[in-house]
């Protein structure tokens, strides 16, 4: 004898805990911390720089705490819901292509088995502060994704459409030529963009673009207006952690 009315008897759907219709909890949508670094050097008072020691402390923390720094492919699969991704995903991004990234980030990340993404401006290669193509190739081979940050790191909204297009398309083309990869993830220089920028990125079939708006990154955000978390080199390890851990 049934202990409760059957679905047929009361016209309702079977209870959700019925074995035949085991409830599948929808996976929580991905929320991925995307950390934004620039130069790794000693420059007191400049929050956009971080000392090599402090940077190493942060990377070793991520390793010990069980984070998995993603490739852009893994990031994209999580954003698209194709893959659930690792338990503690994180995307490490480095803007501009400073020589010190090659010196201080690449060897350490290699040692820790971390992936990272570099947003660089091909027009600034080889000018002394920035990496050469040779070094960028080496980073790429070490597991870094290399993506465009404008040809000359311009204030895009100050340019007309033709010049914006050159800045974006030429940077993309040069990276693709030098590395034989697809460059379809953009990072706005100074975090600046306007309607024309968005239109161009769509025309050029960019999948994502990163801003400097603060917060965790989620699939609900506009794909060309993704948030990141600024790694402020002046902050303590605890303050830095609090930006992406609850
Ligand atoms: Zn930049």
Automatic annotation (TrEMBL):
Xref: InterPro entries: Glyco_hydro/deAcase_b/a-brl, NODB_dom, Polysacch_Deacetylase
Bias-annotated ranges (Low complexity): 7-24
GO MF: hydrolase activity, acting on carbon-nitrogen (but not peptide) bonds
Cellular localization per UniProt: Secreted
UniProt keyword annotation of Oxidoreductase present: no
GO CC annotation terms, alphabetical: extracellular region
Keyword Signal: yes
Pfam families: Polysacc_deac_1 (PF01522)
High-level lineage: Bacteria, Bacillati, Bacillota, Bacilli, Bacillales
Protein name: Polysaccharide deacetylase family protein
Highest taxon of the lineage: Bacteria
Domain NodB homology: 88-246
Alphabetical list of PROSITE patterns matching this protein: NODB
UniProt-listed GO biological process terms: carbohydrate metabolic process
Region feature Disordered, mapped onto this chain: 1-25
Keywords: Signal
Species of origin: Paenibacillus piri
